[in-house]
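S2.1 Query sequence (Glycerol-3-phosphate dehydrogenase)
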Amino acid sequence: MFRAVTRHKWAVLLGGVAGRGPVWAVNTQRRPIWDDYGDSGTTGPEAVAAAAAAAAAAPDRAKVLQRLQDTKFDVLVVGGGATGTGVALDASLRGLKVALVEKADFAAGTSSKSTKLAHGGVRYLEKAVFELSKPQLDLVVEALNERAHLLYAAPHLTKILPIIIPVYEYWKVPYFYAGCKMYDFFAGAQNLKSSYLLSRENLSHIAPMLDQKKLKMGLVYHDGIFNDSRLCATLAISAVERGATVANYVSVEQLIKDKTTGVITGAKVEDQETGGTFTVNAKIVVNATGPYSDKILQMDANPQGLPEKEPEKATPENALIAVRNPKMVVPSRGVHITLPSFYCPSEMGLLDASTSDGRVMFFLPWQGKVIAGTTDIPLKQVPRDPSPTEADIQDILQELQHYIQFPVRREDVLSAWAGIRPLVRDPRVAEGSAGSGQTEGLVRSHFIFTSPTQLVTIAGGKWTTYREMAEETVDEVIKVGKFQGLKPCTTRKTKLIGAQHWNLNFQAYLQQRYAPLEDSLAEHLANNYGDRAPIICEMFEADKSSKLPVGLYGDGDDKVKNMDANAFDYPFTIAELKYCIRFEYVRTALDFLLRRSRFAFLDAREALNAVDPTVNLIGDELGWDAEKRAAESAKTKAYIKTFGV
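Output structure tokens follow.
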């Protein structure tokens, strides 16, 4: 049965008013889940020791691969993005025996290339009001509640961000003000902070980079901002802590089907590092592969569970395509760029509510830089590694220039990246029907689809609602698998690793306990690793050289003599990389430079300078030979060069 999931228990249809359509009521009595924001327990030696012990208890890759082969699992999750890791965590907490495989790294696709906002979606609220659409409003209210969950579950990775809407015409002031207040209202008890007006004078002081000529006022509302790929890795490791068997760089090559019933009983997988293949047995398989969902659905449709054959004629164009003619996913390329911090206030974001082509564009302070985006370019096929075009980058810069009074320069772009937006449609909709070929009008809700082979597919949605998507997917798994005696879903009140003993004073604890520790380094560790940060700090104390930037690893005095002063601009240390290799399943240089540290997203040119030292350190830890190191270095540099540099 196929169903669109847009309902929300806090938004209920009451009826029509004078023929004008539905109205809604919002639960405002529930205690805000983020009341506990920042109050996560005691910080001290016992808490630090507990975090270190939990990290050390995680199985290494060899043990994980052996468990995949030896265990009969209740559920095998395919896909290590936001949804897949969320499903693995939820299912593990309920008592299911869980395996997860990801063909690349956690968050290697869309889940590392989002706008980094935990938000309800102001544009969806606008559509809901003007179209009198209950499904649109349900999506907003659902996301607003899940936004509060992110602030509770991972407060070290998620922060409240005020966002300014500059207003250049007086008649728009009441329009935007009413919209922001409605946004607050539909959040109910989960509202973060009340929206408010800013006078032109105050706005000019807060955001001096804005062009003042036509500026009238500003509206400020609040959403959350987070570190997406670190959150995904945190979900994966949290699932491991709860008993899940999780492996990156293991791809599904074939779905195994019972010869009599045709029901899927597992998958044939390949270890991407060795090329070895084996079977993972599971009662239920979940397809949580995001933009690549159609690839698994193609296997599902094949009697032997095999993927569609690649075109016989090998061409450069064919090599760039991951999924041909997708039926469920409506692919769209979304591009973001990274700019220096002076393009935006350090503590507030900017929203362009009316771009030249009707899109919404954000300019947000993030990790000490400014990210700007996004574009929305419809695609016919799903690419393997989407990359931004120069036209995409210029499009964002031109929109930004409408607001900024100094020249917006191409050379200021530090990085640029592209992801495939997770838009979906009901695959039963015939080709060519309304809405099936364009992203215009598609709501980023999610679908759950259970095929006759008992493959459960979860597709669509957005980062903010990953937890509810996972909950509903596991509900479906339990129903299809007829599992009994399980615990109820507890993810709404589950803190992720790094959050259990973290609080708003954790940076102060690190700087006092591990003095001298620079402000920027302590802030980076506290806000990205939470209560696991002391493990890295202990490495500093054991070996002072591990506190050096990762780009200075391995070359001794010669490297220091010839170093670029910019090497010290970023807080990514040798110890941090060692931690990620040992406790977060980093297997390649891109895993660290892109997804654990975010180095290449923040400054692709500087990240290029750190490639060889990063490869050498990983090689030393994992035992790579010279040939493997050379190949890894070349692959990493080629990929980072697609980041707009």
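DSSP finds 22 helices and 23 strands in the chain. The first helix runs from residue 45 to 57.
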